[in-house]
Amino acid sequence: MFGLAVALCNLHEWLWPKFIQKDLDALRDEYNNHKTRYDKNKLLPSGVSPNVAMALYPQYGVESYLIPVDWNVILKLMADIGGEDLIHFVSREFEEQAEAVYAFLGCPPLAADTIWPLFWKMLPFIRNAPDVNS
């Protein structure tokens, strides 16, 4: 029973963040690429997407107040506090296994109405997971 509990927990911790991140990425892309309506009374750029306004800020009479960052410093700070492992909810070994099972199943879409069926389809393929019906 312990093996099943671990498999259930690990699969949950791998699948749900993947599902949520997909939706967050879609929302970010939608928000940053939507074209706002033009408003002549607005001080900030309008009639253009936020991504375009940020990339072409001089054309819109805007100054950039972004602070230049040394990415080497950022990468070192991240490495000092744990690096990439800080954003993983499961072991690398389990992540590789889950990715392989997901690919084997044809990378089905991650959606609110498919996530539970996908979870139960993947579970029998997870190593050390006993049959769900036993």
Could you describe the 3D structure shown?
The chain is 51% helix and 0% strand. The chain contains five helices and no strands. The longest helix is centred in the N-terminal third of the chain and has 32 residues, at 2-33. The radius of gyration is 22 Å and the shape is elongated. The relative contact order is 0.16.
Topology, number of strands: 0
The chain-level structural class is mainly alpha
Question: Strand count, sense and closure of the main sheet?
Answer: none
Q: Radius of gyration over alpha carbons?
A: 22 Å
* Share in helix: 40-55%
What value does the average pLDDT take? Answer: 89
Instruction: Tell me what portion of residues adopts beta-strand conformation.
Output: under 5%
Q: Give unreliable regions as ranges.
A: 130-134
Summarize the helix and strand pattern as letters. HHHHH
Helix count from the secondary structure assignment: 5
**Terminal residue distance:** 9 Å
Shape: elongated
Q: What's the gist of this structure?
A:
With 134 residues, the chain is mostly helical. The protein has helices spanning 2-33, 50-55, 71-80, 92-104, 115-122.
Topology:
Blueprint: H1 2-33, H2 50-55, H3 71-80, H4 92-104, H5 115-122
